[in-house]
Every structure is written in structure tokens, then in C-alpha cells.
Amino acid sequence: MKFRVPRGTARHVVRHPGDGLALVLAAWALRRRRWWRLPPFAPVPDPEYWSFRMMTAYGNADAELDIDDAVAAARWSLRVRRGR
Prior knowledge:
Mean pLDDT: 91
Shape: globular
Structural class: mainly alpha
Radius of gyration: 13 Å
Number of domains: 1
């Protein structure tokens, strides 16, 4: 399974600009180590790790990430980092 940006992300960020930073920081935290050395030369999660995350979240490694779930997880991650 390849990482894909959830459908509706741009629309959500236009409507809720404050969530943009949370989504970017959450995506950055999931990036593959030394991402610049392997194709696609982009800071995306390792495919095996992403499949594992989708399996644990949705019960299906080929599931598509829902934007509402992504925003909720990103907000939670930001709150945890800030200690709130």
C-alpha cells in the first residue's frame, strides 16, 4: 500500500486553515528515515509501516485514510507534543 494524501485534504485546509500545520507536522513525524536516499525521494512513510498503520486503524492494509481521522490524529499529536 502506498501513502496517499486523504481525499478532501485541500478542501478541509481551506475551510480550517489552522489544521494545516497540524497535518503537516503529523505527516512529517511519519516520514521514512533517510527519505532523501530512496525513491520517491520524498518525505513519505515507509510502505510497510503505512500498511501496518492502515491495518491497525481500519482492519485493512489497503484502506484509504479518511480526512476526518487524519485531522483528529494530527490534532491529538499536536496536543501531546505541547503537553496539553
